[in-house]
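Quarterly update from the structural biology core.
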Amino acid sequence: MLNRKGFTLTEVIITSVIMGLIALMGAAVLLQIRKFYLQNSSQLSLQIESRVAMDLMTRNLRQAKAATVTIDSAAGEPPYSRITFTKQSGSALAYYLDDGVLYSTSTSDPVRVMTRDVVFTAFAFPRTDDDRYLSVSFAVRKESANHKRKLYMWAEKVRVQNE
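Predicted structure, tokenized:
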């Protein structure tokens, strides 16, 4: 009777091929997971930044004096892309688009970046008979990890609380 210890060459080759296939599939899965994570994290950061910018703008616009609200545009920017107003507290604020960046400026604070990658901003009076209602909208675009461009639009109607 023979005492066999070890593996045959055929068993070793088959095991090596199977292990190689598993390693290749594992690497492909890990690359997909990384791509998915990068894509979702960039979209999430863009959405959070844009949502915070919209919340700050609408909160400050609600505190504005209706008679002080002015909508115009900065030099070289699209129409209706800048809004200036005075809050009830007396501080003057402005929001404006400049080269794809939405800025905020006030008498008490220096210029502050609200959000980047902005492709469109518009401030408007949706009703001509009541200047206490404002429409605020902007769109941001971000290129994802797989080189696809995503466009997000934010729009809100704001009622100025002060005459």
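The longest helix spans residues 9-62.
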